[in-house]
Structure of Sodium/hydrogen exchanger:
Amino acid sequence: LDYQHVQVPFEITLWIMLASLAKIGFHLYNKLPSVVPESCLLIFVGLIMGGIIYGLNDKSPPVMDSDIFFLYLLPPIVLDAGYFMPSRPFFENIGTILLYAVVGTIWNVFGIGFSLYGICQVKAFRLQDVSLLHNLLFGSLIAAVDPVAVLAVFEEIHVNEKLHILVFGESLLNDAVTVVLYKLFRSFCEMPAIKSVDVFAGVGKFFVVGLGGVLVGLTFGLTAAFTTRFTKDIRVIEPLFVFLYSYLSYLTAEMFHLSGIVAIIACAMGMKRYVEANISLKSHTTVKYFMKMWSSVSDTLIFIFLGVSTIGENHEWNWPYICFTVIFCLIWRALGVLVLTFFVNRFHVNTITSKDQFIIAYGGLRGAICFSLVFLLPDFRRKKLFIAATTVVILFTVFIQGTTIRPLVDLLAVKRKRESAPTVGEQIHIRFLDHLLAGIEDISGHWGQYYWKDKLEYFNSKYLQKILLREYDQPKSSIVLLYEKLERKHAIELAEAGQLGHAPSHPTLLRSGFLCSNNRIVVTDKKLEDALNPDVLENIQEILARNLYRIRRTGPAYNRHTLPGETEPVEHAKEILILRHKGL
Amino acid sequence: LDYQHVQVPFEITLWIMLASLAKIGFHLYNKLPSVVPESCLLIFVGLIMGGIIYGLNDKSPPVMDSDIFFLYLLPPIVLDAGYFMPSRPFFENIGTILLYAVVGTIWNVFGIGFSLYGICQVKAFRLQDVSLLHNLLFGSLIAAVDPVAVLAVFEEIHVNEKLHILVFGESLLNDAVTVVLYKLFRSFCEMPAIKSVDVFAGVGKFFVVGLGGVLVGLTFGLTAAFTTRFTKDIRVIEPLFVFLYSYLSYLTAEMFHLSGIVAIIACAMGMKRYVEANISLKSHTTVKYFMKMWSSVSDTLIFIFLGVSTIGENHEWNWPYICFTVIFCLIWRALGVLVLTFFVNRFHVNTITSKDQFIIAYGGLRGAICFSLVFLLPDFRRKKLFIAATTVVILFTVFIQGTTIRPLVDLLAVKRKRESAPTVGEQIHIRFLDHLLAGIEDISGHWGQYYWKDKLEYFNSKYLQKILLREYDQPKSSIVLLYEKLERKHAIELAEAGQLGHAPSHPTLLRSGFLCSNNRIVVTDKKLEDALNPDVLENIQEILARNLYRIRRTGPAYNRHTLPGETEPVEHAKEILILRHKGL
């Protein structure tokens, strides 16, 4: 037995397997996931695993490595989030989201930091040695809402799109603020004296970190789009580029101390429309599927590891400090949302209702990012207290808030997401209004979002598309694209329902000839049906009718670099067109 | 700049990116890949990269780590090979393949080992210190035909199916022999004296390694199939299980010193039919696509690394030994094929022609497996000589044999692979003959392959399918399955060619009403067509006709754990059936 040799990949595979099996297990009992969010169940599995490891080894189970978390587990989730981000509501509410993410997070950091410093002054709690700077450092890591936890809970409760994007967008974009404040306070902790220059440098750094992330992300995203222009002959590696470039954008941003999360989101949103146009349908299915799969596994692993890492002896249980941390997290978030929303509502027609405000405040879940950051703290006396407080805050928000938010949403009758997507009619009207508003803004000289959107669209179709898209003739209208997509879906459904049998298969029969010949077939059937089992007959008839035309193309010659049936449809479409022309 | 922190994933990503871009680069110039096999080009890229690294650092570039090769690069390629293995020709020729793989490889090992030992006795070459055991050890690593190299070349030349499976199957299954002989000679080298018991233990070990690999693989494969029974509610992680279980089978086999390659092939072939029946169509596309993508990247990386590792100062250039190694590799392979084929042809009606024999002998390419094994050798005086000889043999076979095999195949007019797949008619006849032969074998009491195949099929449908398949009612005939597949493909093609517009969309119109109503539509069209642009009219008509029925299902509510459009088709099919019944 040579376990040493295969240990690393074997254990990684086993952890992923455990995560996947846990997921299957929950979904076998349909009632469970509808009551308790999956994240809670996974943490619970983690707690049990941790307990078993602790019981067997009699020492603390391994803690989730911060490097593993930030380098391998977080990127797939953020990539998935960025790639499937509904861009319209995101950009419509970008101002509000940024306000929550930047001002709200800073508000929370300082609020929690200063209030906890106040608590530390109470002599009965024996916490006088925790300095203000340490409290602020702790505040900077505990204040940030966690995208992984938010996603896990909010995707199950289906609140309306605007509410979802507000909480989710905030959780993604506050990364830049968290990175800056955390690193700032950490370096302050190690400095002998703090000058006012350092504070200003910190403020400047925030813009560098955020905008730098966007820049890195967009650069890689557009490069990815450009690369997929040239993959026509080698379809099989197309999906790879989506993953490689977005991961590179994340790593590059991290390397330069920029916000990796912001970079990967900018990359994913930047490349999406061009990549989708360039790559084949199957490649696109693979990209989407694999992204979902990967992020799903990643967040399962994160929650399990959260549970595992909770068990052990890393904690200092100073309950007053811990309890006040939870309370201050709740209070300052609620206050922050109230105050910021007050300002937001003054400038918007479409206001955020008080119900929505409550859900935004209540949905501020903390998760694995805080957890990884607290372990990355430099060693000092009270680190274990901070770890304990962070663990309790995470468990409180995920378990208590995570399980009660669904009943609360029901109770408050918060506006839900509409079940069906907008109809074509609605979509036409939305587009029409966009054009109209862009025109109005242009005439009135107001540089609003519609004006900029229109300019961007113009720039896109005039320059970007020509560089980044493979077959650039004319921009296909989104309605035509939607129509093609629906057609394809419908065709598959028809085929699966066995309806296609009645579609004329030989194209020359289509226009006129088909009707007569089909009539004749129907008549002949009538006589035969008495003699034969009708089901069998239908089967035979279908097979004969269709295979006459198509059977010589059952499969192309096998080649490693092309997938079967990859180049066929185009040729076939041409053939159909030629036959059609002859028929006319 | 914090490069240290992200170094590992960053460099891995960059290598993969380089490999992918190299692949794109070759395919941009269409003529290049048709003359030179891709493997040669990639080694060439690797040589240039290695030269650059050597020139810049003035020290040998990093050598491909054997662990990385065996644990991370080889499994995807073998999985891809096993999953897409054409099982019928494989099992039809399993006897011949095993004879080549086992007896042929042993023949080559001893032939090359003893002849090289003879060369070492020539005093002029100054090689007297290379013992017989070392020569045999070298023979054991240089004798084995490499699946990666064979795949890369043979998939581009499209020889007939039998010839392909003979060379390819041999290259896969000889792994068990190589593992045993290599480890045996290695341990003999370290032993003070060799007893005859050890030799017999070696022979016994071969069966353990090979059959153990099959057993481990099948166990994991069937477990994978069983697991996918329960993934109906969580489609998104289905593809994961295919990869996880096959990788686990490989690692487990390696852990117990069994043949990992044989295990992963058994796993892939064992799970394929059940997994395909259980998972959704999209999951299956993802599995296929990702497997192809992964193996494609892996073999690109392997060839690039081969090139990089060639540059440097790891070599001892004793040209007589090196040249004789190349010559003996060629001679012993040719002799082996001739002798073994002579015996094979005596027992088969369908003989292997002399042209085929030549291609089998000529197609015995060596590759990265030898290369990794030679670096795994324990350090001794002449290791660098072995490394040099291995490098030259690999480069010779890949470059000289790899580039000339295509012209030779053309010149000899070797029977090519038929371009089109068998028609339904042919498939029916093949199945019919299978049944007939199974019956004849049963009656005559001959336990031939058809008899066993029939028994296995019976066992499969009576027990295995009931345990492993989700919806087990009745085994769907393969013709019905093929028909469904063709239908689906046809439907997509129709939709893409815009032909679906003429298919009746409202199901109640289908049976009788449709013909009349369609007649009327055609008539009405005639009048309208004069007034309106016919293309526009057709578009409007199509959009109206189809969207009436389908538009309310544009997209389901977004949920993280299901992909859009996953559960829809079933409901839709039901709806269609209900409407149909009403219409009758």
Summary: Chain A has two domains: 3-412, 423-491. Chain A has a mean pLDDT of 79.
